[in-house]
Amino acid sequence: MNRVLLTGNSAAAWAARLAAADYVPAFPITPQTGIIESLAGWIESGSMPARLVMFESEHSMLAAAGAAAATGVRVFTATSSQGLLYAMEMLYATAGWRAPFVMVNVSRGVASPVTLESDHNDILAARDSGFLQIHCATCQEVLDAVLIAYCLAEDARVRLPVLVNQDGFLLSFTREPVALPDAGAVARFLPAFDSMGIEFRASRPISQAVAVLGGSPYSYFRYQMQLALQGAAGVYDEVAQAFASEFGRSYPQVEAYRCEDAEVVFFMTGAFSTRARAAVDRLREAGQRVGLVRPRLFRPFPAAQLRRLMSGRRAIAVLDQNISLGKGGVLATELASVLYGMPEAPLIAEFIGGLGGRDIAPEEFYQMAKVALDAADSGITPAPRMLYTETEMREMRKLQSIAIAERHELRGAP
Questions:
Q1: Cα distance between residue 113 and residue 103, in whole Å
Q2: Are 200 and 266 within one domain?
Q3: Which of 34, 73, 88, 123 is the most buried (most CB within 10 A)?
Q4: Angle at alpha carbon of residue 330, lines to 358 and 342, rounded to 5°
Q5: Which of 224, 247, 270 marks a domain boundary?
Q6: Can you give the pTM of this predicted structure?
Q7: Buried-state track 137-147, b at ≥16 Cβ within 10 A, e below 16
Q8: What is the CA 401 to chain-centroid distance, rounded?
Q9: Quick one: pLDDT at residue 194?
Q10: Which neighbouring-strand residues pair with 78?
Q11: How far apart are CA 127 and CA 134, in angstroms?
């Protein structure tokens, strides 16, 4: 096993290569394009025996991914932001086909306005599509999660596509030490794709299609997907245990950091959770009993583990790197639904931050913990708060003033 410096994009590409992906349908979009560029170079040089095809859009790309997976081909693809939204129709369709493949999403804020940097509105928009979701915090997790995702997707008890999410720029273009596993070890962990005899062959023609159905059979098939997703949690535990046995790295459904005696915990996903870990360490040094809970598996949502981990806490500071406009943060809503009815459930203090790649300073984590504990003392749940400083607001007001002045000047021009 070699230890090398890899970006999140390179880690994702290496995972697809080690998984022996046969087919890579693709369409470029920042900040995902580096994944496809790496795969294209390996395929062209002959070091990766696969086929890469560029399509005219993410919609067509995903249709090709699902169709290929349905014929018994191991498929890998990737997208980001507007690309994921453009493909949204086919997310629902390919999941309904029960086509097992892996797609990496490199999270980026969605328009409008336009940004190239990360938040989680794109990936969370896909949470009801039927794709499983694994969320990563480091480049090592990106590589390992893709390998785990193939085992999960191709298991006969699941047979659904999987989205592996990493943060744009924070991971996609950031180099970190990554343990690159031996191809032989990967082959032991991830056997060849068993398509269960549904390969399409000219010598043995078969038909497979999605029919127009009435409400009763439609309900039946949708509920079969629900059962598969619910059962996928147990399958994930089996796969994660097998991965730990082979590679020595453990990936439970939910990461709990310094939570044994924590009064308040941060609850979040993604790369900013590494900042939260550092904040937890500093707060512990100051004598505060603080921890971090981070779900890796987002669909299916790990409700049982979260109820167990949140029991006995006084407060939870939820950091949503997304906003469900008109409501608030998605993570806070999901967590509240899990804790509803639990005796002496902890108070939830919701914070929305990191939108469009906005940085989150250590001091803001300290403030979040204080607000959450103060709210627990008062027994009053605070309204959701946007993380935004007075300095940032002054800068925005300055820019607004400049724009207004320029507009008035243009109106007064001859």
A1: 26
A2: no
A3: 123
A4: 130
A5: 247
A6: 0.95
A7: bbbbbbbbbbb
A8: 38
A9: 85
A10: 104
A11: 11
Residues 89 and 189 in one domain: yes
Residue 270: give its domain's CATH number.
3.40.50.920
Query: Which residues, at least 6 apart from 111, have a Cβ–Cβ distance to it below 8 Å?
Result: 82
What are the DSSP calls for 79-95, one per residue? Answer: E-THHHHHTHHHHHHHH
Phi then psi dihedrals of residue 25, to 5 deg: -75, 140
Give 69's contacts (C-beta < 8 A, 6+ positions apart): 75, 94, 99, 100, 101, 161
Q: Which two tokens stand for residue 330?
A: 């998605």
What are 97-134's pLDDT values in tens digits? Answer: 999 999 999 999 999 999 999 999 999 999 999 999 99
Indicate if 293 and 349 belong to the same structural domain.
yes
Q: Tokens in use for 201?
A: 């062959």
Average pLDDT, the chain: 95
Token pair belonging to 353: 């931050």
Inter-residue contact 43 to 50 (CB < 8 Å): yes
- Both tokens assigned to 290: 């603080």
Helix 88-96 crosses helix 58-70 at what angle (to 10 degrees)? 10
Nearest to 53 by CA among 72, 82, 73, 70: 73
Domain residues for 212? Answer: 2-247
